[in-house]
Design a protein that fits this description.
single chain, alpha+beta, four-stranded antiparallel beta sheet, 8% strand
Length: 294
Amino acid sequence: MSASDDTPPARPTLGGQAVIEGVMIRGSQGTAVCVRKPDGELVCRTEGNARTGRFRNVPILRGIAVLGETMTQGMRAMIWSAQVAAGEEPEEPSKSQVRATTAASLGFVSAFFFLGPAAATRRLERATKHPRLVSALEGLVRVGMLVGYLRAMGRLPQAQRLFGYHGAEHRAIQAYEADEPLEVASLHRFPNAHVRCGTSFLLTTTLISSVVYAVLGPQPMGRRLLSRLALTPIIAGLSYEAIRLASASPNGPWRWLFRPNLALQALTTRDPDEAQMEVALAAVRAALGAGESS
């Protein structure tokens, strides 16, 4: 037997998100959603992961494919969890319902975070002798809008519950990654922030888009807005690669670049209670079980 035969297989990477009164965990083979019903009972559902096909090993394109699949799964999980949390008999969301909700979400993000700052700074770009500096200002406006939006959301009681489950999800994944027992006591030792968080993705996308748009330079309004929309998938793919690299080298020399991402998560996470941590742990176990049974 060769030395490589003695090497243990790499542990599957987990990702996830908070849902209404619950947590979704995505493993290498399957995804699990666990939600607390109004009577306290815990309900879980699992499903296999679709494959990203020939794009799985192509940089940037794999990020676009994974993002699309993750958004679709996340939207289904959010709709399903809302039904369970309301005490209703859950029904599998229809494809049209998921598509419509996803399209509405993407439309809001594109209009608010990409087109809005581009339109707001266009007049200033025409009036200055340094238009590339305006592109940097557009990035600052975009960051400011992101932070302001998250701060405003964090004031809502429903969002605070969601952010508690977000913190529980991060702690459960970190306990798994550290090979700690999947128990509530273990989760108390971990922070709420995680480098692969969706909040990190939002900020990374915002920063990378600012660089890309600055390279493009000044453009007429129509072309300016069109370029923001057309380049969004590429920017998302670049952001995926950046976060993937950072999480693969957590102690790398440029880890400091992701400190703002971790700091921003203070706006989208809350310290979870033990009941929330129990839900997150159940989702991790279910996702790992789905991988083992597939």
